[in-house]
Model the fold of this input.
Amino acid sequence: MRYIDLNLIVIPDGWLEESDRATKEILQGNAKIDDFCYVWQDLKPALEMIVGKKCWYCEEIQSRSDKEVEHFRPKKGVTGVKPKHSGYTWLAFNYTNYRYSCGYCNKRRKDSGNNNKLGGKGNHFPLIDENRRAYKSGDEAYETPKLLDPCVEADVKLLDFNEDGTPCPVPLANDIDKDRVNVSIDLYHLKHSEIVEQRKALARYLEDLICDADYFFDRVAQGDNTAITKFQEKINTLKTAINIISRFSLFSERYIIGKRHLIWIEFVFK
Ligand SMILES: [Zn+2]
Done:
């Protein structure tokens, strides 16, 4: 998960007018939300302009599943909420509620590689204080979501990873934030066995790069100037791995930061 600045979305001409029209039709009871599903689908290319076709929750780019425009606050009902909640209908066509997501993160699925453990967001949207649950437009401003939001910079900073590819809270997180991270790991399926295996493979790739860079750095230190270019190539490849548009870039960043005992590692972040 990386911070996604929603101000970077370039809204297509006419889209806001159409979203306003859809919202009015829904709130007046003249239509169903799905009658206007093209509204959020039309914004998908604009969302893809920010960090490419990468899931904003798990940072997967490859074809685990098609990417979709996900509603952060569920549009058609909220699971496990009393009194019954029919969804944040007033935000169904509000682009600030959209998150670009893969089906593993936004749909409930069993993980066959992990005892069929159920994960994925579905219509879940837990709050820290359920008494503040919004049932009408505007009240969502008083909610404190449990789920980490890729569009909130402070939230993204709470997520860390172990070297074995499993996600976890950052060590300094307080108990509330640790709970938020753990709930998010479950509801975004960030510990799905396939994605953990892919992070493990990425860790091996990064480790090889780091070993090579360390070797060339030593040679340069011993006066071998021919190793400078090779050292710089390895640094550049590590820089690419932590670029926000790269797959699993936060995992790569955390992994490389874990090697900070190497005196050259700071070059990767310059
Ligand atoms: Zn995902």
User: Anything to note?
Assistant: The chain has two domains: 6-191, 194-269. The beta strands are 67-71, 98-102, 109-111, 117-119, 159-161, 167-169. The pocket of zinc ion is lined by residues 55, 57-58, 60, 101-102, 104-105 (CB under 6 Å). Residues 77 and 87 are 4 Å apart (CA to CA).
